Amino acid sequence: MSEKSEAKRDGAKQQKNSGRGDYQKGDALWNGFVVDYKESGRSVAVSKDMWAKVCTDTFKVSRSYHPVLKLIIGESSKTRLAVIEWSLLEQLVEKWNE
User: Fold this and answer.
1) Distance from C-alpha of 15 to C-alpha of 26, rounded to nearest angstrom
2) SS3 state of residue 12
3) What is the 8-class DSSP label of residue 2?
4) pLDDT tens digits, one per residue of 64-98
5) Measured between alpha carbons, how far is 2 from 84 in angstroms, rounded to an integer?
6) Lowest mean pLDDT among 16-25, 31-40, 75-84
7) Is 34:65 a contact under the CB 8 Å cutoff?
8) Is 96 helix (H, G, I), strand (E, B) or coil?
9) Cβ atoms of residues 54 and 85 within 8 Å
10) What are the DSSP calls for 29-71, one per residue?
11) With bands split at pLDDT 50, 70 and 90, how would you rate the model's confidence at 37?
12) Residue 96, class by beta-carbon neighbours within 10 Å (0-12 exposed, 13-18 middle, 19+ buried)?
């Protein structure tokens, strides 16, 4: 997997030189999210510092975007997970239940 192929799979707009420079932070933009892709064969550890960087990168892009970590776990069979803020999940559930 590459960030490019995963962004294409998602239909996301890949950021040029992600992580370098001041403006195009994160790996891709997708439906109001700044996506940071992380892949591992067996497990991915999420730390407070990792989440803080994703949030900081998102706010450098736009205050109207939300940060998301997309975790791709597995070697032959991939499991894809999203890590978002709990308050955003609550908002999504609220809208879903309207």
Assistant:
1) 7
2) coil
3) -
4) 999 999 999 998 899 999 999 999 999 999 999 99
5) 21
6) 16-25
7) yes
8) helix
9) no
10) EETTEEEEEEEESS-----HHHHHHHHHHHHHH-TTSEEEEEE
11) very high
12) exposed
The single residue listed with the structure tokens 């736009």 is 62
Residue 96: HSE in the Cβ half-sphere, 13 Å Cα cutoff: 6
CA-wise closest residue to 88 among 68, 61, 72, 63: 68
Please state the length of the chain: 98
Backbone angles phi, psi at 25, to 5 degrees: -90, 165
Give the other-Cβ count within 10 Å of 92's Cβ.
11
Closest CA to 85 of 73, 59, 23: 59
Write down the pLDDT at residue 84: 97
For 21, other C-beta atoms within 10 Å of its C-beta total: 11
Residue with tokens 């940060």: 67
The span from the CA of 42 to the CA of 56, in Å, is 27
